Amino acid sequence: MGREDFCYVADTFRGNDATRYGKESEPEATATYENLMANEVTQVGFCVHPLLPWLGYSPDGVIFKEGKPAILLEIKSPVSGQEKKAAELAADKKLRYIKKDGENLVLNQKHQYLSQVQLGIVLLNLNLTHFVMYSKVEPLILTIPRCDNHIDMLVRKLQAVYFKHFLPKLAASV
Known about the structure:
Elements: H1 17-37, E1 41-42, E2 47-49, E3 52-57, E4 61-65, E5 68-76, H2 86-91, E6 98-101, E7 104-107, H3 112-123, E8 128-133, E9 140-145, H4 148-172
Parallel strand pairs: 5-8
Antiparallel strand pairs: 1-4, 2-3, 4-5, 6-7, 8-9
Helix pairs in contact: 3-4
Pfam families: YqaJ
Domain YqaJ viral recombinase: 10-119
Organism: Haemaphysalis longicornis (Bush tick)
């Protein structure tokens, strides 16, 4: 049986120590972000864009400005952040999704988290994400701007997978 014989409709991943820690620390990470940035975070649940109804996204939060969604919030809570600053973890190359660009720390353009936040940006029709690497010692917040080139490539790939592979398998299984 090959990979093409599988059609995943239900989520079978039940988590691990890292995902459990991330889930457990999210309220504390959100409160820390709110205090540091003086932004109120709103939980919005699962979001679907009306023009891309076959895609969805569950943001960690959204910041509203003047009554309109303005900033996507994405939180990552590495277990090692219990004892070290997020910037130290990044500098020590303990976070594969962060790299150094000159003197700045940036989201690694080759990591899947870039696509994750760009998908959230397009589905919520926003222009930026605050990407939080939560650490109990000292978190790090990166501002990730909208990248229409990446979004176009990502949506095309997801559309191809969904309509050429997933949907036909789903329809055939009914």
